[in-house]
Amino acid sequence: METGARAGIVHEDSSLVAHGLGADHVDVRSGYASLDITVARGANTVTRMTEVGAHGVTYVLGHAIRNFARQISRCGPTASEALEELTRLKRDTPHHAPWLVAFAVGIACASFGRLLGIDWPAFMPVAGAIGQTVRQRMLHWGANVFVDAAAVAFLSSSLGGLGARWAGSTTISLAMVASVLLLVPGVPALNAQSDIMEGHPTLGAARAVCVIVFLTFIAVGILLARAVLGVRP
Amino acid sequence: MTFELLRLLHQALFGALAASGFGVLFNFGWRELPWCAASGALALATRMLGLDAGWTVEAASFTAAAAVGCAGRVLRARLGIANTALAVSGCIPMVPGSFAAQAIFGLFELTSLHLDDPGKVSDDNHGIHATCDLYDRCDWGWPVDGHTHFPEPSFMTNSGAKFWSRTDPVL
Prior knowledge:
- Chain A is mostly helical.
- Chain A has helices at 7-20, 59-75, 79-92, 98-116, 125-140, 145-166, 172-178, 186-197, 201-229; strands spanning 25-30, 34-41, 44-51.
- In chain A, 64% of the residues lie in helices and 9% in strands.
- In chain A, a hairpin with a 2-residue loop joins strand 2 (34-41) and strand 3.
- Chain A starts with 6 loop residues before the first helix and ends with a helix.
- In chain B, helix 2 (33-52) runs antiparallel to helix 3.
């Protein structure tokens, strides 16, 4: 869940791991903030609930966990070996350098802007890059994700708008929107749809509500920036 | 023809840049990033072709997502279980974040309507149109006898000419 996997993947991998470790029957209930799993072997049954941490998107870790779940189902290591390997995967999975992520996000936001129709003077990767840097810092300090979204939206759209105005762009308002597209929760939005369509409406609805609230905070940030800069939509 | 080709290349290029940029954000490995770019380019190019053919944005986006998903399936032997994640990365540039933001701007504007100053709102109301796309790009009616009047959606009248009114004067 914390790697951005949809509910179907979580259920499938949980089942693979439990069966690989010797369970006869597995039931999983996935919520937005917790996972419940019941494992049965013969006449013995045990149910556990575990908390889900911050929802993020980490493809490399998700991919590694999926591969390891398949490995467990084939090779059947002991529970302690499996736990040790999962802990190692979480600890040692490589991440791109923060400066590279900020640069890539800046380019992506500016590219989104071109797809939306901004002109060349408004092609400003710097606004998105600075926004991503501040976002990483604020999350590192433990800021609330929604407050973080509003603050970064305000900062990025202000920078995007100022830069576009300075460069003589005629699409300042669009440039301000494009600068905050790094914040749009695209993967949760797609996961919400997938979860609902695959028979997990509770989780899907929770994701969808979070997406809506997130977008609302982003919009607040942009509106504030527009008010400060005096930009008309 | 050359202009159309350039536009197609433009959409594919920036779709590829957007998808691979977000691939870095989502921590895709270096080996997968070119596939992210290819996925984004295919999605945006397909969507543009659909839109040029006169399809709605929904139909064009659906076809583009299907194309990316099918391509992932075809390349499954090469991509392994990554094919689904790569298809998602290609579809991310098509998520209508900008439209969603405009819709929320519209909601904010709805809560700040000045019923005694319709001209002020009519200057601001383009965001409302995004929110109220269900109203077939309606024009807003203004208070008559203390009530707020809205145009009736065309799916109710087929003409869109009649008005229905709310008795609640405040939104």
